[in-house]
Amino acid sequence: MKTFLEQPPRNGDETVVKVAIEDLNVYYGATHAIKSATLRIPRQRVTSFIGPSGCGKSTFLRALNRMHDLVPGTRVTGRVLLDQTDIYARDIDPVDIRHRVGMVFQRPNPFPKSIYENVIYGAKLQGVHRRSDLERIAETSLRQAALWEEVKDRLQQSALDLSGGQQQRLCIARVLAVAPDVILMDEPASALDPIATSKIEDLISALKAQYTVVIVTHSMQQAARISDETAFFHLGEIVESGHTTEIFTRPKQKKTEDYITGRFG
Amino acid sequence: MEYFLRRRRQWGNLVALACFWMSAILVMVLIVALLGWLVWSGASALSWSFLTSVPNETGAGGGIGPEIFNSFYLLFLTLFFTVPLALAVALYLEEYAQPGIVASAIQLAAEALATVPSIVMGLFGLLVFVFVLRWRFSALGGALTLTLLNLPTMMRMTQQALHAVPGSLREASLALGATKWRTIIHVVIPGAIAPLTTGIVLIAGRIFGETAALIYTAGVSVSNANPYDFGLFHPAETLSVHLWYTHAEGVAVDAQRIGSGSAVVLVAMVVIFNVLARLIGNFFRRRTSGR
User: Fold this and answer.
1) What is the pLDDT of residues A166-198, one digit of tens each?
2) B56 and B37, same domain (yes or no)
3) Residue A191: helix, strand or coil by DSSP?
């Protein structure tokens, strides 16, 4: 199988590799969930992971900010280089990694606190305590997440009073407030209605000007709409990766073609 | 045929409903009757001087002031030991421990401790605090015995409260770069505070009413030094012990009256604790949902 790394670099200097994954394996107990996956994720692009349910795309994503550390019985081997530094190296603190690599989950999971408290949660952890700084961070993050206009008059209200789509954008704002380089999104719109979904998609497209976005999606249309790069997962392996347009118009692997044309999955 | 089957189903439903109704009514009637009888027989004993004056061993006119004080004092001491200890163990089991021998052993020990009858726990307290440590009958010995008695329940309730906090919130916090400890302080404990406070107040009601475990540990008399005595090593007869003692062994001429009056006060306190548990629980539920 030809991997992304083995292909010659494309677009000259334009694409800088933000995250390089080499020979990554993830085991849940005896289950070999990710099998020797290698992938390069370019900076300030949207990279999407597609594939049938249970193919390992979420598992792979969670390896990128060491969320597997929290699950007993999970083992990760291989290297994940974030700006050339291996995040699984012995002297790396996963807490630092999670400051740099944020994550948005499948279901909106705001804390049962006020909207304001939700946004500044991460910033407070990083030691920002001055009120004016926190307020500035809250406003900037909420503006970036396209939520400011809807909530600016009720920042002290419960985040749980927001709609599902607003909650998910709040969760994105909460991640932005930590000022990460990379944002991982695990099917961020799968629990939302079409209108909320399109808002999230617009947001993702806007975010790539500043951030590297990696999104897991079960919707091929979504991947085609918003991503620059696509990796296709099947049975724990990356079958194919490359430019989204290429993957969707000229897939090199038979399996990829079968999947995107709807013959399985 | 079809018709009879339908009739039979309807009958079954009706009979079951009637049974549930009668059970519910029976429970209500029992509670009202019990409370009514207690109040009817004890209300005449209630007066300001009864609630505040010191007991009289032999003569008439003794009060229950020091006993009320001791009940609250022991309650405070017991919660002071029980709550942090239960929280620590529950946090360890729920947040840190890997499933395995250690966690199972702690769980098993707690369950075994929970099955010990309170009188046995009282005798254990007698052995350890009174005989071995030579504290005689003491408030501290009583509080520690009550701690042993209530720790398993408090632990279980704390565990359940922590367990009910959604894992997705822990994940969100950790993914934002929080350490496990910060996550516990900022997300897990605030998320569990409503059931936790309800649990504490309910336990408080049980502690308040506990008798058997205290007879041989905190003693059946109030402090000689001072009726309202904070001394940890002085005897501290509580209201419920006093109630038992005046009925069982009392020689005061108005023992009957004192017993009935104490019972009313005791029941009123326990009812107040239960109502408080509900109110505080609701309060925190509103608070922690950010509303």
Assistant:
1) 999 999 999 999 999 999 999 999 888 899 899
2) no
3) coil
Q: Tokens 């009313």 identify what position?
A: B264
One domain for residues B102 and B192: yes
Give me the sign of the Cα torsion angle B171, B172, B177, B180: negative
CB contact under 8 A, B291 and A109: no
H or E element that contains A101:
strand A101-104
Question: B22 vs B26, B71, B88, CA distance in Å?
Answer: 6, 37, 44
- Please report the ipTM that was assigned to this predicted complex: 0.87
Residue A102: closest CA among A175, A35, A188, A36: A175
- B275 and B161 inside one domain: yes
Residue type, B109: A
The total number of residues shown for chain B amounts to 291
Which of B168, B175, B182 has the CB atom closest to A107's CB atom? B168
Residue tagged 């006119």 (tokens):
B61
Residue A158 forms contact with B (CB below 8 Å) = yes
- What residues make up the domain containing B126? 46-288
Q: Which two tokens stand for residue A12?
A: 């000259």
CATH class of this structure's domain A4-107+180-260: alpha beta
Which of A41, A31, A97 has the alpha carbon at shortest distance from A67?
Answer: A97
pLDDT, tens digit (0-9, with 9 covering 90-100), for B207-258: 988 988 898 988 888 877 777 778 888 888 888 888 888 888 877 778 888 8
CATH number at residue B255: 1.10.3720.10
State yes or no: pLDDT of A81 exceeds 50. yes
B15 and B149 in a common domain? no
Question: From the candidates B165, B176, B289, which should be mutated to test the interface with A, based on the most A CB atoms within 10 A?
Answer: B176
Which of A62, A26, A58, A21 has its CA nearest to residue A42?
A21
B101 and B18, same structural domain? no
**Structural domain count, chain B:** 2
Do B191 and B225 reside in the same domain of the chain?
yes
Nearest residue in chain B measured CA to CA from A180: B176
Residue B180: closest CA among A4, A39, A70: A70
